[in-house]
Amino acid sequence: MTIFKTGTTALVTAALLGGAATGILTAAPALAQETVQLEIWSRQDVSGPLRAGNVVKAADMLNAALEEEGSDVRVEVVVRESPAQGFDDDALALLRAFGIGEGPDMFIAAHEWICAFQQDGFALKLDDYIEKYPEHFGTIFPSLWDSTRCPDGIYGIPQDAEARMFFYNKKLLREAGFDEDFITAMPERTLAGDLTMDEVIDIAKQVVDNTDAEYGILHRPNVGPDFSMVFGAYGNDFVDPETGNLLINREDLTAAFGWFERAVNEGVIPANNTSMDWDAIRADFYANENSAFWKYGIWDLGSYAFPTFGLPDDEEGFFADWGWIAVPAAEKGGQPSTLTHPIIYGVAADTEHPDLVVRLLGYASDAELNTDHAVTTTHIGIRPEQLEDPRYQEAWPLARATQLLEIAKYLPNEPQFADLNRILYTAIQGVESGRLTAEDAAEFVIDEAEGNLDNVIIE
What we know:
Shape: globular
CATH superfamily of the largest domain: Periplasmic binding protein-like II
Protein name: sn-glycerol-3-phosphate-binding periplasmic protein UgpB
Strand order of the largest sheet: 3-4-6-5-7-17-10
Subcellular location: Periplasm
Pfam family, one: SBP_bac_1
Oligomer: single chain
CATH class of the largest domain: Alpha Beta
Signal peptide: 1-32
């Protein structure tokens, strides 16, 4: 056991539940007659340490409020850290902990898992609490609440947001023959529904044909949320709004696979993209300028583009030679989009102190604390008032990308979507390698879903 002390806060770590660590962080005044320990489950996530850290800080804020109210109760926060490598594995570990009665009072999870906790009776419905505490939750972006919603209500509190887009290299577009007016107009044309998904392929092909760039479009090389951007552009929401069950539309699915098929056939997406290395992909786009487009997320600028590959980190310098567009519509006049993937706070259904937990998470969602997280991890904030913070304005990728929340889409809050997403990725690999046509890929996904998943609706 190791104890770290900083001021009035102590951190105790110990092995728990197969390698998880527990930290007791205490800021309760000595005169309190009752100290309530509230436990939060969090991944050991270097990309977001303040997701749990802000809850620890919020304990001081809640205790100050309780003291002002004349209450004898004070809270201290216990952080239980999971060593899970990703949010899917972490959610499964947490579900097992709840299943054996070892669940925490609150937890951090990727939003698409919240209804798994709701269905198993492990998550507290929050609609009444959100209405009760408008001072904490009233200004959170309305669209973000959709990411925490199950068929019968809200079960989570948005902790952050993000935006995923097509980054592009303006220097390569100029070299390929596109004039400055065309290049400058691309973002607004996209938002207006004028620039389409197929036009992205056309632009990328012109770059490949007329420059030394080897690639037109690069995407992540492993399974992940990003591919939902393309599927969403072609109408695939993957969830039935009435039942909350997974829904697959054969026509829309085929159309989305058709985009990947055309991109590979045109020599734009490399056939081996799914077997490439992350570092090599980033280097090809940012450093080697070997691709016109890179389909990924806003955090990549602060995490890699600026510190690792030396792209200009000032707004004017970046947009002189680089840019991004939202995910275009499939057809002219259609709706562009972005994919956002909020991480959320959940509250255990059986916590003994639901009101205290919700208030604690309300303070953790304070604009200043959330901006601390946003600017240090290049994630988008949860409140419009954060746009007024000089730190947020200085972190210009966040300020610029926040506008995309108005057209944001989400992964389905359906427990089986992670399994469906792996099936979709396998089909993409088949299409890009030439083993499957778009039609074959759609049939493969439908067959696998019907054979391995429950209650899937096929249209």
